[in-house]
Write a structure and sequence with these properties.
five-stranded parallel β-sheet; alpha/beta; three-stranded antiparallel β-sheet; 13 strands; 3 domains
Length: about 575
């Protein structure tokens, strides 16, 4: 039990003792005061007043004097309808600074008995990985880290669509417009993306040729040899690129599934659904009617016999079950697929599939001038964005440190660039569209990853100088450790970290972690501006250095959950 949790337990016990058998408060009723200066924990008396048919102000005035400061409770005050508790800063400091030193700070064992599959990072082969894919990959990885931090056995899973109509278009485009052409080494995926866009635009203008795409799709799905060799070669190009991007982003995928491996089992499932009367033919297609669930119809098979994603998702669910028997299967998929996810879950339920399934949705990433589309060719390639961010970070770092070697500049610039990129996307609420503004993502101040890294580098610099005794400020020799307001505020912010993680693992509102990291960095900046650290003396100096170290360790942990590495210097 962490310090703030212990404090809440003590507050709860004190309230129960003061109230006697008249009312039994719960932890859920405790909250943070709306005005920070009023205290650390508040107990609103509205419910209590309603039950007793008395004014909440009367009740707080009556109960607060009965509670005496002890343990972690320093003072108790009645403030309108609230009983406010202020915690003892020395008692809190003793616990929090020790906790922050532990590698496991913020973690818990609440999910130890659970096996959870997290499916995320699902780009298509034969297309570029672009900015729009980053939110899925980064959100999924944070969820993996969160669940692991609370003890779950997590299987990070990627499901790759390597056999869709887009693949048929790409192969057709290669044969029609670029027969025998061999792209430059390292440029294979740029070539595939260009061909896909070229083929799509041609077919939009010449729809009569789409019949060729259907034939190629059928050939690939049925395993015919005609297009197999070209498919395998181009698929290999895509997978090399995809694995490279995943490594770049620090994704920890342990299980890979491919659509091409699920065709046979998908067809068997569709046939079984037909036999059982769960699915039926409608105008030549195979559907599952879901009108009872108000979900329309789940289309599994086209009139030409080729399968839709929905059918293969059914096969994937059963394959996952066979492989892992997970307690929870979490699908990280954008909000546009919400209906498809509901149809999938409803169909699986009709089939007797009883595992817990959950769709974690998020809004799309778009550009200021509209939604990105591989069909239109108006995407920002991941590699182009990464290189642009890296170049900007390199220039910024070189401008600040003309004496650094190129190797050191490149190393620091790499950390800054990925902090900027990841933080920009992860700080956004999942239900909000991300309008990707490159200039904002590259900013090195304000609510950004580089700002948090800079704070950490500043703390590192302070800690490296801890042995220096020059310029000691003896005027504050009479001070006691943690006696200043900014010290107490920073200490309480560090103490909030476990609560933030536990709240986010329940709600998946991962933007709260980025917000917390920024708030903690800002709280440290306020502390450092107001409170001398290296110039202090004795126990006060050591206490403030310990507070700096606790801040740094907590920031490392928060950023680590976001997939961001810290730096020693900036």
């Amino acid at each position: 039990m962490y310090a703030l949790q212990q404090a809440r337990q003590e507050v709860l016990l004190a309230l129960k003792t003061a109230l006697g058998k008249t009312y039994s408060p719960t932890l859920d009723e405790l909250e943070a005061p709306k005005i920070a200066s009023h205290g650390d924990i508040a107990f609103p008396c509205f419910g209590l007043a309603k039950g007793f048919k008395r004014s909440p102000v009367e009740i707080t005035s009556e109960i607060a004097p009965k509670i005496k400061p002890q343990g972690m409770i320093a003072s108790v005050d009645a403030n309108g309808p609230y009983i406010n508790f202020r915690l003892s800063t020395p008692a809190l400091a003793e616990r929090v600074i020790d906790e922050a030193r532990q590698e496991t700070y913020g973690t818990s064992s609440t999910l130890t008995a659970k096996t959870i599959m997290v499916e995320y990072a699902q780009p298509n082969t034969h297309k570029e990985v672009h900015v729009g894919h980053l939110r899925n990959a980064l959100v999924g990885q944070v969820v993996v880290e969160l669940l692991r931090a609370h003890g779950a056995r997590v299987i990070p899973t990627s499901y790759i669509n390597d056999l869709g109509a887009h693949v048929a278009k790409c192969l057709w485009g290669i044969q029609k417009f670029h027969p025998g052409e061999k792209p430059e080494k390292g440029e294979e995926n740029i070539f595939l993306a260009k061909v896909y866009t070229e083929a799509t635009q041609w077919l939009d203008a010449n729809p009569e040729e789409k019949v060729d795409i259907q034939k190629i799709f059928q050939s690939l799905e049925n395993g015919h040899r005609g297009w197999r060799m070209l498919w395998k070669k181009t698929r290999g190009w895509s997978m090399t690129m995809i694995r490279g991007v995943f490594k770049d982003l620090g994704l920890t995928i342990e299980q890979w599934y491919f659509e091409s491996d699920l065709v046979k089992s998908s067809k068997a499932i569709v046939e079984d659904l037909m036999r059982r009367g769960i699915a039926k033919r409608s105008d030549g297609a195979v559907i599952v009617p879901l009108e009872e669930e108000k979900l329309g119809v789940n289309l599994l098979e086209r009139t030409d016999g080729t399968l839709l994603y929905n059918a293969k998702d059914l096969a994937l669910a059963f394959q996952k079950e066979e492989d892992y028997r997970a307690d929870l299967s979490l699908y990280v998929v954008d909000v546009r697929q919400s209906l498809a996810m509901k149809q999938l879950f409803a169909t699986l339920k009709r089939m007797g599939f009883n595992r817990t399934l959950q769709h974690l949705s998020y809004e799309i990433v778009t550009l200021p001038d509209g939604v990105m589309s591989s069909r239109k060719g108006n995407v920002i390639r991941y590699e182009d964005l990464r290189d642009k961010v890296m170049q900007s970070a390199r220039q910024e770092t070189r401008a600040r440190h003309s004496d650094w070697s190129d190797k050191k500049v490149d190393e620091i610039a790499h950390h800054i660039a990925f902090a900027a990129l990841k933080f920009y996307i992860l700080k956004q609420d999942l239900d909000k569209i991300v309008i990707f503004e490159t200039k904002q993502a590259l900013a090195f101040d304000g609510f950004t990853g580089p700002y948090v890294l800079y704070t950490m580098a500043r703390i590192q610099s302070i800690l490296r100088k801890r042995g220096a005794k020059k310029g000691v400020d003896k005027s504050g020799a009479h001070e006691t450790p943690f006696g200043k307001t900014k010290e107490a505020e920073l200490l309480r912010k560090i103490a909030e970290y476990p609560d933030v993680l536990q709240r986010v693992v329940r709600t998946y509102q991962i933007s709260a972690i980025a917000q917390y990291a920024f708030d903690l960095a800002k709280s440290f900046a306020d502390f450092y501006q107001d409170v001398p650290v290296l110039k202090a003396t004795g126990a006060v100096r050591e206490a403030r250095l310990a507070l700096c170290e606790a801040t740094h360790r907590t920031l490392i942990k928060a950023l680590s959950v976001l997939g961001i590495e810290s730096v020693r210097e900036m």
